[in-house]
Amino acid sequence: MDENLHILQEKQLLFILATLLCCLHDNGGVGSDRVSVSVTEGDSVTLYSGVKTNQQENIVWYFNDVRIAQINQDLNKSCTDVQCNENTDKFRGRLKLDHQTGSLTIMNTRSTDAGNYHLEIVSSGGYSVKTFGVTVYDVSAANQKETKSVKEGESVTLNLGGMKKPDDLMMYFFNDALIAKVTGGQICTDVQFDERFSGRLKLDRQTGSLTIIDSRITDSGVYKLEIINISSITVTKGITVTITGMMVGDPVTLETPAVDKVSVSIAVGFCVIFVLLLLVDHLFCRQQKTVTCDFNCGKEILPI
């Protein structure tokens, strides 16, 4: 509960900073602000309005000058995509409008979603415009896989392309439960949030990749990376991980414990000495028998 409150406070702080940036360009009159963001096909991206609706704003979103979402002043009317414009169903249910903040989320982005998104806010305090330039990068067929499958005990690295910038807040979720976070220069993993991984998580602060060591079947599920930056944009990336158990017929590598070479040398030395002692004893006994035999034979040939 405390951790969730802490996350909420961090998001609120970023929201306030974005609002302040917007106000610097507004000052109660006509303002304009532009933010750029790059995502990969399949990601979700949230474009924050920088305001909180108080039944006094009329918020309208445009994509390349076509209205795609709207909330009117008394909140009794809102629309997204085809509801706003009968001539287009471009996003096909992939838009989500937050009625509390007016923020717009584009889910499962496509290359055709690239372009300029304009936000117009009309209130008693004035009129402001904000523009988001969204670039959507294509991915190869090899990288379009949204699932990863490994065998139990193997390590799996989730490289979701979340290259971290200094001011970004990065959070990893496993089945919607927070398991790792990077904020500033601080990294928090597993036991601070979820003990099920028991020190088996490794987070790269440079690339943002997350490695699960000694994977278990219970690690199977949906992993999401959420990146929140000071430019009032959230990018969400997801992947499904499947951990399979060992099957009959699967190759198994048996590892022998490490052996101290010095100990082996000492043991071999003792064996050599022992064999030499046995050999000397054997030769000595044969010599003794020969002497006894010769002595007896000599006694037999002596005259009486």
UniProtKB/TrEMBL annotation:
Entry keyword annotation includes Amino-acid biosynthesis: no
Keyword vocabulary terms for this entry: Membrane, Signal, Transmembrane, Transmembrane helix
Transmembrane segments: 262-280
Organism: Danio rerio (Zebrafish)
Top-rank taxon, per record: Eukaryota
Signal peptide positions (record): 1-29
Organism lineage string: Eukaryota, Metazoa, Chordata, Craniata, Vertebrata
Official protein name in the record: Uncharacterized protein LOC100006475 precursor
Residue span(s) of domain Immunoglobulin: 34-137, 145-244
Keyword Flavoprotein set for record: no
